[in-house]
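Hi R.,

As promised on Friday, here is the backbone we talked about, encoded as structure tokens. Could you run it through your design pipeline when you get a chance and send me back a sequence?
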């Protein structure tokens, strides 16, 4: 929002009001905040779309309500599947080992561009070329980010062997 002072002004003028309205609809403050933030993220992604409407707050409210509805439908479908027994109990809520928690925390300390490359390549198992296409950058940039990410994670997680291999 640093690039768009109009969107920043709309955000400051309406975020609390929109969150309160969505909280009234969802009954869940975190869900309301997420839906409103998603609406602003979509506006940030396509600022011309927001500038083309007469009432930006109404547009944002509509987007936020639609986001909340979609999430509710997905959650309800998942709950029905879980109750039906079609999902194995161990797939419903996977356990998180201490190592997994440490890895996720270390990933979140990486710069966004590096974290995206590492997650897409190593966790989503995408080839380097597909990561580059997804992120809109060159293959060389992805390779550089992966090397930096491996080094940073190795240092963060105390893996001296990986530091010398990278």
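Update: got your reply. Pasting your designed sequence below so it's all in one thread:
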């Amino acid at each position: 929002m640093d690039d768009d002072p109009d969107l920043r002004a709309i955000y400051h003028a309406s975020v609390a009001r929109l969150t309160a309205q969505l909280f009234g609809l969802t009954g869940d403050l975190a869900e309301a905040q997420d839906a409103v933030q998603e609406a602003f993220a979509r506006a940030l992604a396509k600022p011309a779309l927001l500038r083309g409407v007469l009432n930006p707050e109404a547009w944002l409210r509509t987007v936020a309500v639609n986001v909340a509805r979609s999430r509710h439908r997905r959650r309800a479908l998942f709950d029905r599947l879980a109750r039906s027994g079609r999902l194995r109990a161990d797939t419903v809520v996977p356990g998180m080992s201490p190592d997994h928690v440490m890895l996720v925390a270390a990933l979140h300390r990486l710069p966004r561009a590096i974290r995206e490359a590492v997650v897409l390549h190593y966790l989503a198992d995408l080839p380097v070329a597909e990561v580059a296409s997804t992120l809109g950058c060159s293959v060389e940039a992805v390779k550089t980010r992966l090397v930096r990410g491996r080094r940073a994670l190795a240092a963060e997680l105390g893996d001296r062997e990986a530091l010398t291999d990278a």
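One thing I noticed while checking it: The CA atoms of residues 97 and 103 lie 10 Å apart.

Thanks again,
M.
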